[in-house]
Structure formats: C-alpha cells, structure tokens
Amino acid sequence: GQAGPKGLLSEIALVAHGGYGRRDVAPASDVDLMILHRHGAMARVTPLAERLLRDVFDVGLQLGHSVRTPWQACRLARHDSTICASLVDSRLLAGNDDLFEGFMRRFRQIVRLQPGRLMASIRASRNEERLRYGETVFLLEPNVKRSRGALRDLQLLRWIGFARYGLREPELLHQQGSLTDEDFRALREANEFLLWLRNE
To answer: To the nearest 10°, the Cα dihedral for 11, 72, 114, 108?
Structure first.
C-alpha cells in the first residue's frame, strides 16, 4: 500500500550512517538511521518515522535517527563537523536509489569545495573528544572508542580521506598511494584488534 514501490518507498531512502553505515557495530552500539525524503513528502514520512522509532525501541536497540531532505542534510553537514563526519559513512538500506545517489553527489561536492575547513573542524572536534575521554597511556580502562589511539582515530582517517580525496575506504587510499603498505597493514590490524576488544 502506502509504502509500496509506487507509494512512499519511492519518495524516501533509508540510510545507515556512522558505525552502522560502516558495518562496525558492537553490542550496545546505536543504530544510526536517516530517512531521506523528497521535498514535500514530510507529512507522509512522519508516521513512518514514528513507527520505525517505536519498533526499533521495542526490540531493545538505541536508535539515532533523523528525517531530512537531501538539501537539509547537506546544509547541516556544511555547518556541523560531527554530522558531516557521520554522513561520510552513509549506506543505502532501502528505498529510492536515485534519491540516495543524488544526495551523495551533492554531499561529496560540498565536502570537496572546502576540504581544509572541514578537516580542521573534524580534527578540532576529535581533539576535544580525546581530552574529554583521556589519554590512553594514563588510564587503567581507556575508552576503546574515544580515547587517543582508539577507534575514533581510525575513523578520522576515513573522514579526512573523504574530504581530501573523495575516498573513505583505507583500501582505496592504499591503492591510490596515499597510504604505504606498512601503514595500511598496521591500520587494518589495529582496526581488527580494537573491534574485537570492543565486542569482548
């Protein structure tokens, strides 16, 4: 009916972002979702968003969610480095492919127009987070996600790679020569170890 191919589903894209978009979820991770919708569809999308929020909560998951048009998402990303970094790892789950691809094209253009400003903003945000969660070497129980040298620093590489080269995957950065063989191996091993540790 309403959510069928000729109904609401053709006007929205259900987008995973953040850790869920990267496929890096751990026990108790948030499920970060964005309902991307065409301009003018908000009144029809709201009941779907409310139902989704309720159903996900009922199965015991923490849902980080937003409901935006592509224009709204890109405008927010331009002014908020946290939102921008999260959207770097966007992945289409269901819905309109063209709507999602159009959003990603526009998002890439915005990021590539001011890569220096974005990289500086993301680095500053990361430095604040490190200070808040502490330096790993001084903590008996460092935060595996947010302390210095933890998962966030590996994600920082993805965000800066996307801003600078339009590439977020370390494999692609390695293939184009932006990461040496040694650095790529070290990053891959560190990521696997930290994800294992976080899941434990």
So the answer is: -10
Tell me the three state secondary structure of residue 63.
strand
pTM tops 0.70: yes
Are 63 and 25 contacting, i.e. CB atoms less than 8 angstroms apart? no
Please give the angle made by the CA atoms of 190, 191 and 197, to the nearest 5 degrees.
90
Q: Which residue shows structure tokens 């480095």?
A: 81
Both tokens assigned to 3: 């959510």
Joined together, the tokens standing for residue 125 give: 């945000």
83-127 pLDDT tens trace: 888 899 999 999 999 999 999 999 999 888 877 777 777 777 777
Mode of pairing for the β-strands spanning 30-37 and 91-95: unpaired
Going edge to edge, which strands form the sheet with 12-16? Answer: 62-68, 30-37, 12-16, 91-95
| CA pair distance 20, 177, nearest whole angstrom | 27
Contacts of 104 (CB under 8 A, 6+ apart): 90
Both tokens of 99, joined, read: 């709507």
